[in-house]
């Protein structure tokens, strides 16, 4: 199993209401990839955080293998979600992948 963790910081120019809508869209569309992308077994998007946090969104996902992670990254459904809901709205992206 592979853990795929992402932290995102939303664009500063987004209003509070826009950030709320973006978070909702990202959460809904990424979590919907389970059962669509082969090897993606879990997807948990966190948008609520303590004031001490430096990120706006966390993605905590699990995949069956490193090969499944590679497939996820290029899967058309994932690319669509990333290009439509994530990339246009984030200024910072940090990731960590590890085997469990």
TrEMBL record:
Signal peptide location:
none
Read off the Gene3D superfamilies from this record: 3.30.70.100
Stress-response A/B barrel domain span: 2-98
- One of its Pfam families is Dabb
Instruction: State the superkingdom.
Output: Bacteria
PROSITE patterns, alphabetically? S_R_A_B_BARREL
Concerning SMART domains, the annotation shows: Dabb
SUPFAM superfamilies for the chain: Dimeric alpha+beta barrel
Protein's recorded name: Dabb family protein
**Taxonomic lineage per UniProt?**
Bacteria, Bacillati, Bacillota, Clostridia, Lachnospirales
């Amino acid at each position: 199993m592979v853990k795929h963790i992402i932290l995102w910081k939303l664009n500063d120019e987004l209003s509070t209401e826009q950030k709320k809508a973006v978070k909702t869209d990202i959460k809904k569309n990424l979590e919907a990839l389970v059962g669509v992308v082969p090897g993606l077994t879990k997807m948990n998007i966190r948008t609520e955080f303590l004031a001490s946090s430096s990120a706006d969104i966390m993605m905590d996902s699990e995949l069956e293998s490193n090969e499944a992670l590679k497939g996820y990254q290029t899967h058309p459904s994932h690319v669509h979600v990333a290009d439509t809901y994530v990339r246009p709205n984030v200024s910072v992206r940090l990731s960590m992948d590890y085997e469990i």
